[in-house]
Specification:
CATH topology of the largest domain: Beta Polymerase, domain 2
Shape: elongated
Largest sheet: 5 strands, mixed
Order of helices and strands: HHEHEHEEEHHHHEEEHHEHEEEHEEHEH
Mean pLDDT: 93
CATH class of the largest domain: Alpha Beta
Number of helices: 14
Number of domains: 4
Helix content: 25-40%
Low-confidence stretches: none
Amino acid sequence: MLPVEREVLSRIRPTAEEDRRMMKAVDGLVRKVCAAAAEVGAHIEPRLVGSVAKGTHMKNPDIDLFMMFPESTALDDLKSQGLEIGRRTVGGAEHYAQHPYVRGEYAGYQVDLVPCFMVKDPRKKMSAVDRTPFHTEFVKTNLPSRSRDQVRLLKRFMKGIGCYGAEAKVQGFSGYLCELLIILYGDINGVLQAASSWKNGVTLHLSDHPGEEFHEPLTFIDPVDSGRNVASAVSLESLMTFIAAARAYGAGPGAQFFFPRGVRSWSSAKVREAAGDRLDAFVAVSFQKLDLIDDVLYPQLRKSIVSMVSLLKRNEFEVVKTTLEVGDEVEVLIEMESMELPRERIHRGPPTSTPNAHEFLAKWDSAGLSKPYKERGRWFVVVEREHRRADKLLMEKISSLTLGKDIKKLRSFEVSSGRGLADEKRYARLLTKHLDERMPWER
């Protein structure tokens, strides 16, 4: 183990006393859940899952406790009784995945109380929630105790480079995927050495656990379910970031991979210096942040950005890149090659041999900026462009776009553009993220 890795471990590994305090909280939580289950007449088996159960947790972990109902339980009863047990145990807020669950606090720990079915046969079709206990047992059985610290290091590495978490906000590597990678390669350096040669579309699996073919940036066959890709959440961007980080760490290990400095907003002067004339082609769209969980919010945000970009491209604006910032409000920055297009554009008509070509000629004989003309066996005409400026196009059309279903309900969208963006403090972080091309470990 490298010296930097020993140093990182000393910061992230729980002490024996911290683990004793945590397990005391788990014991108390289990008793309270069982008492609440008895009060509502539910027959459950509490099951600790996640990193705490597998011994791969870091300091101040979340506690994931599943309430396992018999398979014969009606789904509506599982949902209603599971939520009621959660409310009586930790209060908290209700969240909705494949089964609804309650997130609250107990003895200073964030707790997820999740109802699921006690599925006996791992080959049986089941939800991701119902499959989780099988994942926990697989890791407990196949991950040597000496490798738990290696999992901690890999998780912290992923977190440092911004790739940890399968949730929609991150689209990165789940804790379970990190555990499987350590099982496959032995330690963090084995994982990083292997990842240095990965490419888009790489497929991995444990020996004796092959599976189906997937066409995704990264595939790791689930040893519990050969028809599932554990890495399905990993976006191409997260995969490429991890590959770049693995290569950089191999060339020069350092604590900055595990604990980067983070984004620090630039001054107006630095933004102007870095952007130069590019500022003229920046458009910022801002709107109210909706009270939605991240797994609901971020897919809607990405869908909305795709719709904005498609609108611009349909009107012949060349989009260079986009950046999203979610804080007190949502801000989207779109950079184009040019904010304004020429007044004229060439409109392509039908082939000259088309029987109804006369309709095109009649329409554009006097309506175009030129007379229709023939070129390479087809009619063309120079016409006046309907939308010349990207910012005005977005202002006019954004409410009618195919946005996320909750975003579409908003009544107000603010569109700002040009050099003045650099003078508004509200956009400082957004502009910094857009212009700062350095990786997290390079800052």
